[in-house]
Amino acid sequence: MAYYAAILHTYRPQHLAYLESLKEQGKIFAMDPFADGAGGLVIDIADSLEEAKEMAEKDPYVVEGVRRLEMHEWKRVR
User: Fold this and answer.
1) For 2-74, which CATH class?
2) pTM attached to this predicted model
3) How far apart are CA 48 and CA 56, in angstroms?
4) Are 76 and 30 in contact (CB under 8 A)?
């Protein structure tokens, strides 16, 4: 099992419902907005980058083109 960082470059309160549903499923390690309002960071828990991308791409704001998504595998070292 690996952890993946979804860097979301805009942040909308409506997005929280989607994130909360993933969190309830045990698919989110951490999530919070950036202090400067530039977006937010979600650390997804998935078996592959493809699975993590699938979850992120189902976000209504990614689907609608409101958010720009950038995915990277996050190497947790501590």
Assistant:
1) alpha beta
2) 0.75
3) 13
4) no
